[in-house]
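Researcher: Next entry in the queue.
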Amino acid sequence: MWRQKRDEATGRRYIEANPQALTNLLVIDIDDGIALQKAYWCENYRPNWVIANPANGHAHALWLLASPVPRTEYAHRKPIAYAHAITEVLRIAVDGDKGYAGLITKNPLHASWEAYQLHTHGLCLRRAENCSRI
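Model: Structure for this entry, 134 residues:
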């Protein structure tokens, strides 16, 4: 893996999900032929996008965060730990791959995949009373 400029990377099958210092997206790998259905059935917390392999139905589900979580050495550890905990809850909800690190994801712009956008609002990691939508 190596970094490329955005216009070069958009032609690749796989891309890095988040920039180096921030988490904008939570990504879960669903290795199942009915991955799209599993992601859609997650009613309270449906992913923003599901990017599926048309050959076998396996997919990556992506949740957009309402506010990014910093991941530098100067960042607070509690928001990072909370984002990891939320990722684990989502992984369990859609029966995602335990070993998937979430570093790269299927490129929704690539012709090899079928991309489905389920909604556009971001997942809020703050308390419910501080969020317009959960």
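Model: Strands lie at 14-16, 22-30, 49-52, 59-70, 104-106, 114-117.
Researcher: Noted, moving on.
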